[in-house]
Amino acid sequence: MSGIPELSRPHKAAVPFIFVTICLDIVALGLIIPVTPALIADFVGDVSAAGYWVGLFGSLWGVMQFISSPIVGALSDRFGRRPIVLLSNFGLGFDYLLMAMAPGLGWLLLGRLINGITSASISTAYAYISDVTQPENRAKYFGMMGAAFGLGFVLGPLLGGVLGDVDPRLPFYVAAGLSLLNFCYGLFVLPESLPPENRKRFSFRSANPLGALAFLSRNGDLLRLSLVNLTVNFAHQVLPTTFVLYAALRFGWGPKEVGWTLAAVGVCSAIVQAGLTGRVVKAIGEKKAMMVGLSFGVIGFLGYGLAPTWQAYVVFIPLMSLWGLTGPAAQALMTSKVAPQEQGTLQGANMSLMSAAGIFAPLTFGAVFAVASTHGPVTAGAPFVLAAAILGIALLIAAGVKAAIRHSGSGAAPSGPAH
């Protein structure tokens, strides 16, 4: 394959669509966060039992992501990105309608399992960006996608809470409408990004979690970057797992304070990922940007866990947001180390690894908080200190990664024959 050209006019229209797709997918996911526990409680008739089912729903969603992400990524390498993205949007719309009309807990659980499968196509969106951008610009675009994630996580729960006050099933209908609207929009503006000559044969031998791990471990740098991604996503789970409980115990915060804080986090993260990532990577390169991001992550988590007052905690939010440099820089490094026809496989394997962290990390941080909080508010920050230590390990692993080598006329360094 010759060098990746500047974005064509169709792709210039398609890239914003990919960003909108990511944002709307996350908004849709966020819409149902405030109302799903209440809906489960209505079905089981007991709040304590609902807590068990909410945890089970979350873990099973992660399991489905873990299993299906490599399959979806490999399918996009075989059949192209466009059909996978569009089928996902349509599937998500159908799935949200199913959950909106669920007559019982079993149907709601089925909808959540389907959601775990159809949401796995986020990896295909990342592969699409890899297809149509120059390697040196990918960190910038991945940063913009990270900003779309952040914006979605801010808007989704806020809108879901408002709509849920009207009817707990209304957010599901709105989420379905957004996904189906996205599908219709994509039919007209989303061209295929992977030409037929760059596609590869589908094989279940590689399109499974074990095959994904084998793919990621086939060279030293890819393995190191995979471990960085794993530890980063493991550490990130401390926030959704313990933040609300920690803030209530340490600072006496209620839903209003938590909501405003999460909004501030989302805004700061969007500024870093959309506004700073491209500039920082251009100035110092992907590896150094990744190292800087991890360093600020360590500082930020230590600040969160040790802050003596809420004012001190808030001061660390903009510092912590610089952690957002890590993901786009690491993603850009990884895409530079595999061939163009393997970008979907790479992103599917990455997503599978992230899902594995999402299965086990909440159990770890939840247990640490349960033990630490029994000794009082001061020690309740122990999960954040643990997250800082985990990022410190990621920093050591990242130090061994080689910087990206740019080859004129090559979109990515080939790493194996096409099939």
From TrEMBL:
InterPro entries: MFS, MFS_dom, MFS_trans_sf, Sugar_transporter_CS, Tet-R_TetA/multi-R_MdtG-like. Residues 14-406 form the Major facilitator superfamily (MFS) profile domain. Gene3D superfamilies: MFS general substrate transporter like domains. It is found in: Membrane. It is a multi-pass membrane protein. GO terms for molecular function: transmembrane transporter activity. PROSITE patterns: MFS (PS50850), SUGAR_TRANSPORT_1 (PS00216). This is Major facilitator superfamily MFS_1.
